Amino acid sequence: MSTLRTALTAPTQYINVNGINYAYRRFGKPSEFPLVGFQHFTGTLDNWDPLILEGLAQEREVLIFDNAGVGNSTGETPDNVADMAHDAVDFLNALGVYKFDVLGFSLGGFIAQYLAVKYPELVRKLVIVGAAPQGAKVLEHFPELIYNAMQKDPEERFLYIFFTATTTSRNKGKETLKRLFTRTEDRDKETAQESVLAQMAAITRWGADPVTMDLKMIPHPVFIVQGSDDKMMDSDNSYALFKQLSNAVLTYYPDAAHGSFYQYPQRFVNQANDFLNNF
Amino acid sequence: MSTLRTALTAPTQYINVNGINYAYRRFGKPSEFPLVGFQHFTGTLDNWDPLILEGLAQEREVLIFDNAGVGNSTGETPDNVADMAHDAVDFLNALGVYKFDVLGFSLGGFIAQYLAVKYPELVRKLVIVGAAPQGAKVLEHFPELIYNAMQKDPEERFLYIFFTATTTSRNKGKETLKRLFTRTEDRDKETAQESVLAQMAAITRWGADPVTMDLKMIPHPVFIVQGSDDKMMDSDNSYALFKQLSNAVLTYYPDAAHGSFYQYPQRFVNQANDFLNNF
């Protein structure tokens, strides 16, 4: 038996596209459509929960990457979601990936929506975790929330953003944080400050700019996941997103914040695999 | 190998409690906690989708019954949810069932909430489909909606109440209706008009009476299921219910009305079994 690469062992690979060197990892069961992960604000290859990636990789190929300017990827991070999506499409096409499933987390969930509207033929199904539709008012508080988070030490910052204040949720957060550091070799470097600021601009613009996309036009199956208490996105926005889509399944988890799928990794994996395999 | 009773072959049994003869059926894999089905307005043993019951019965014992005055059960149907719950508890205790999981559909979902608050020690987990919390304003339109439904022939009435107006949803409804008539022998009789009127009073009172229950006190795991377009309950009310519970998972299905689990029987069975087994 050959040893399959896993989330923890897959080497970081690179491909040069439009002068940008993109870092990525591929692993899991070979499948017709890879599941491509679109990461949250500042997040790199190593901010994906390996437990979740491995659960998904049992049933399909998983492809994660650093978008332009993020982590180990070179290039300039755009200050808007549209250009982040264009960069991602160029990267994927260069790899020969012309049809894929999307796992979009937070900022990655904004890019997911943009892809479904603007590149409908490239996308098969979408999983959107902890996100909001264009025009979400709550995002005007995003810089303030991040500023507050930065006053805390790294562990408290992680818990503050992704988990609720209950002991149960915080303990799940500490477990998650350990998992994020399971991989010790060939790790990604942190995203540079200039890129972080560009992402912050992109996120606040997603909430502030005029709404240009008609989500009702998205025919793809979409699986939306959210926690009961996501203060960054406002949990209500996932229901608002659901109501604008024609073919979405929405699930909320209890006592959970922005990192709902970190908190319930096995529930999420079961539901996401069922959605991607059967819906 | 012994042949297990199934949803389609389990005989209707009877037990006399407080002078009421309760009709019920039990089947499925023996389990520590049976899943007890609480049925919708007018519904009898034969209004449960056998495909759903069988999927659930693969992993646990299922117990369905006609509450007082419903279907083949004798007795008087109460005009309020509380007394329906008391009747059910008397019936279950007489069978020796002192702890159980709940599957509450519509009116049955109201009873489920009441049981969790007033008999917390009897209930392990709850699955609530197409329901609303106490005080749901939309229920003041319930008699009008039923009156409109009664103007239609039986098939159209079923589709009007439980499915959306799209061809996809209506076709799923026609398939469901066929399944409800798969069982040909030992069927239940229809619920008598007096009982139907008592249930109508109970449902409108659930929306109109002062809210007496603090759902935040429910510690049980709850799985809430709803369609995107349930006009009877107003789909928003499932999110409102979720927000009042401390340990609930909520899932919405697309292009679905009051009969969301009829429309997606396999998705529902997978999620409900996962919830009942693992959460």
UniProtKB/TrEMBL annotation, chains A, B:
GO terms for molecular function: hydrolase activity. Keywords: Hydrolase. Residues 41-262 form the AB hydrolase-1 domain. The keyword Oxidoreductase does not apply. SUPFAM superfamilies: alpha/beta-Hydrolases. This is Alpha/beta fold hydrolase.
